[in-house]
Design a protein that fits this description.
2 domains, Heat Shock Protein 90, Four Helix Bundle (Hemerythrin (Met), subunit A), 5-stranded mixed β-sheet, alpha+beta
């Protein structure tokens, strides 16, 4: 199911990218075509205007040529007028060819055909006039010029009509391009809206998926922490049981053996001196065994943590570290911490124990300061030393001891901070909220009030 959701999200994202890509290509293609069409339309309109202007100009030139020829009495100039007339006709024909190449519609072509016929009728009298004698010129000059003016006005009217038709066609084409652009903008708006909706859907699905994964991750982390707490609880219970068995069973048996050996020694004082010496050595061995068993039991789970409380247990722990590792430990411990529940006391004891163990193994310190207080609803503890310290690097993997301390504090909803630098020692500070009295009443130690044979209690606390 999760793989199917991921495939659907990937397909939706690919579809969104495809829509965006197609929209961008359509925009580029339409803009390019619109620009080309507008450029061609403007070019055709400009060429048509130039061609019609050239036709009008040629009509004027032909009128001027006719007038000049009629007024010129020198017959030797006839060849020049004929050449000019031929050039005017050629230029006019070229202008008509230009108009025909523009791809005009039927109405415009009809107008051009009428204009061409009218021009042909306009050229014919000029050809006739160029063959007149001076007497014919003088006789028919005035009438010819009047006719030329009338025919010229008709030609200009036809040229204006053709230009009007071309202008109308140009406006229609321009309007059609504008309409197509608007229709494209509408389709682009729909496409953009669809892309936005698809994008929002993908973003919402992705966000929901991420939130679900985060919730799953938090649930898994919570379950792992709960499992870790259960494992630690089971470990503490096992240590408590093992400590109790070592103390109650093995310790009682060795104590009985010591008492028996003491009785034998009193029975054989003078007569058997060698036997007495052996018995004394056996008693020493038993005493050493008792100390070893007692130390093992205290390391596994200090019985005084359950019997006497946290403060005596920490005092014994610090004294043992001072004795075995040549350390000076200064402590400031608030007696109010003894009112904490068993889980809190065990957490504090294990953190201090692990911190002192790290100091003894790695810090090369000569002095350690331990403080523990409970005030303003908080329980705050620090363990600092004057050792060599270490460099904190985020990529460096942490040891199991530091991880264990962090997990213990986090299980109780607290925080821990480790500050260290080379040559400046290390400082570990942990804090968590002090539980309410109701929580303290609910967390009773099952071993409280348990009667034990503590024949070695005076020696231990000494």
């Amino acid at each position: 199911m999760r793989a199917r959701r991921s495939i659907l999200l990937a397909a939706a994202l690919a579809a969104l990218l495809l829509v965006i890509g197609m929209s961008a290509f359509a925009i580029w293609w339409t803009a390019r075509n619109s620009q080309d069409r507008i450029a061609r339309l403007q070019n055709a309109h400009m060429r048509a205007g130039v061609a019609l202007s050239a036709i009008r100009a040629n009509v004027y030139l032909n009128a001027i040529l006719t007038r000049d020829y009629l007024l010129d009495s020198d017959t030797s100039h006839a060849k020049q007028y004929i050449d000019q007339f031929d050039r005017i006709q050629a230029n006019t024909e070229e202008s008509f060819n230009t108009l025909a190449s523009l791809g005009l519609d039927s109405e415009q072509n009809t107008a051009l055909i009428r204009l061409r016929k009218e021009l042909a009728a306009y050229w014919d009298p000029t050809e006739v006039v160029l063959d007149w004698s001076p007497e014919e010129k003088r006789a028919q000059r005035a009438e010819m010029l009047r006719q030329r003016v009338r025919r010229r006005q008709e030609i200009f009217a036809l040229a204006d009509e053709a230009e009007r038709l071309m202008t109308v066609n140009f406006n229609k084409e321009q309007q059609r391009i504008t309409t197509e652009g608007r229709e494209f903008n509408v389709s682009l708006a729909w496409t953009t809206g669809f892309a936005l909706l698809l994008g929002f859907a993908i973003a919402g699905s992705t966000l929901a998926r991420m939130l679900a994964l985060e919730r799953q991750s938090q649930t898994a982390e919570s379950e792992l922490r709960q499992l870790s707490g259960q494992l630690r609880t089971a470990q503490e219970d096992e240590r408590r049981s093992l400590s109790r068995e070592l103390h109650d069973q093995v310790g009682q048996m060795l104590t009985g053996l010591r008492m028996e050996l003491a009785g034998i020694a009193r029975m054989a004082e003078d007569p058997a001196e060698p036997v007495a010496a052996r018995i004394e050595r056996a008693k020493g061995t038993v005493e050493q065994t008792l100390r070893i068993v007692r130390n093992i039991a205290m390391l596994l789970r200090p019985s005084m943590l359950d019997d006497l409380g946290l403060v005596p247990a920490l005092a014994w722990l610090m004294k043992e570290f001072e004795r075995s590792h040549d350390l000076t430990i200064l402590s400031e411990i608030d007696p109010a911490v003894d009112s904490l529940p068993d889980t809190y006391r065990t957490c504090i004891f294990r953190i201090v124990q692990e911190a002192l163990t790290n100091v003894a193994r790695h810090a090369e310190a000569r002095e350690v300061h331990v403080s523990l207080g409970a005030a303003d609803g908080w329980v705050v503890g620090t363990v600092s030393d004057n050792g060599c310290g270490f460099e904190k690097i985020s990529q460096t993997p942490r040891g199991l001891g530091l991880l264990g301390m962090e997990e213990r504090v986090r299980e109780l909803g607290g925080s821990i901070q480790i500050d260290s630098s080379p040559g400046s020692g290390t400082r570990i500070e942990f804090r968590f909220r002090r539980p309410k009295p109701a929580e303290v009443m609910d967390d009773q130690n099952p071993d409280c009030g348990r009667s034990r044979d503590r024949t070695d209690r005076i020696e231990t606390t000494a």
